[in-house]
Design brief:
Blueprint lengths: L9 E5 L4 H9 L4 E6 L9 E5 L11 H10 L2 E4 L10 H22 L3 E4 L19 H18 L3 E6 L1 E3 L12 H10 L5 E2 L9 E3 H14 L5 E4 L8 H15 L7 E2 L2 H11 L6 H17 L20 H18 L5 H5 L1
Helix pairs in contact: 1-6, 2-3, 3-4, 5-7, 7-10
Length: 348
């Protein structure tokens, strides 16, 4: 961008190299997208990279550059966040709370509508009482709740977007970084997960990244604000039993019959399995186990999430079959990247 021109609508995007941000970037081809990147630049036909840091004053830019950017931006999409459950609490709050406040302040200075990406799991108020070992999902969720409250209390022109677990593209399964659900399903696929601490009828709520991006981009183009949008599987989310079946079906394609995990209670894990088996494992394996336990704890709720697809122009609500197909595509991509696919499967 030059100081004397403004080439059509301009969107500031944070987290452009992340799962949701990358999918959003691919769909905003009719806009100039300024990507605020911390380290690695991103590419695209109308992409402008600005190196910055959400946790520093003025994004780490000098005051004049910050003000110039604010004068040019027409909309803000905030996707950047720390989503891990075993990350230092100070780092999580630094980006998720302080960084979100900085983006909110920028959007208000620019008089630009803000699309603030949160998570559907902010509704899990009881998660702090769940046993997850060294993983602390409640720290992540508390940070997202605090950031949401700041946006809602500010009175700014903004929407809150709350996706559930995000998996890969509906068709290709492609994703910039594998998520916790990939690791769990991948272990089932390989026959390497002996137990799953969930009732088999529990809904496993996830959505493909392109669907989340369609909602966000639809809201950017519509220009409407003041809404809270739940982007979830909702009542269509497959059950844990069905997810295990799908993962086992894929496993049979790639090798010997995988061993199906046994469904157990979280209480059994804490009383019997952790003290006898887990505490003797190396720290890295304990951490992976705790992350798996934290991920499954997210799903242990009786009520399905709300879904708001009819409120967004041009976005269709997915059915159970759509979500199962997207899960299969995502795990096929996972299997290829992880080298689990035999040569004849790659050719197919």
């Amino acid at each position: 961008m030059t100081p004397t021109s403004k080439p059509g609508p301009v969107v500031l995007l944070t987290g452009a190299s992340g799962v949701v941000g990358q999918a959003v970037l691919e769909r905003l081809t009719d806009r100039t997208v300024v990507c605020l990147t911390h380290s690695k630049p991103v590419t695209g036909p109308r992409v402008v990279n600005v190196r910055g840091d959400l946790t520093r004053p003025y994004f780490g830019l000098d005051r004049a550059a910050y003000e110039d950017l604010a004068d040019r931006v027409d909309a803000v999409v905030h996707c950047a966040a720390i989503t891990g459950f075993s990350v230092d609490p100070d780092l999580t709050n630094e980006l998720n709370v302080r960084g979100s406040s900085a983006v909110l302040a920028f959007a208000r200075r620019a008089s630009a509508p803000l699309q603030h990406v949160s998570t559907a799991f902010v509704s899990r108020q009881d998660l702090a009482r769940e046993g997850c070992g060294g993983a602390r999902p409640e720290i992540y969720l508390d940070s997202k709740r605090t950031a949401e409250r700041a946006v809602l209390d500010s009175g700014a022109a903004a929407n809150i977007i709350r996706p559930s677990v995000v998996i890969g593209d509906t068709v290709t399964g492609r994703i910039s970084q594998f998520q916790g659900l990939h690791a769990i399903a991948g272990a089932i696929l390989r026959g390497a997960l002996p137990m799953l601490p969930l009732p088999p009828e529990t809904r496993i709520d996830f959505v493909p990244q392109d669907l989340v991006a369609e909602v966000i981009v639809g809201l950017v183009r519509a220009g409407t604000t003041g809404g809270e949008y739940w982007v979830t599987g909702g009542e269509a989310a497959p059950t844990a039993g069905r997810i295990v079946e799908l993962a086992l079906e894929l496993g049979r394609r790639f090798g010997p019959e995988p061993h199906a995990p046994r469904f157990v209670s979280a209480d059994m894990v804490e009383r019997l399995i952790r003290p006898v088996f887990i505490e003797s494992l190396p720290k890295a394996q304990q951490r992976r186990f705790d992350d798996m336990l934290a991920m499954t704890a997210l799903f242990r709720t009786a009520e399905p999430f709300r879904s708001d697809y009819p409120l967004v122009p041009g976005v269709r609500r997915p059915g159970t079959g759509d979500l199962e197909d997207a899960f299969t595509a995502s795990m096929l991509h996972y299997a290829r990247v992880k080298g689990l696919v035999r040569p004849r499967e790659v050719a197919a």
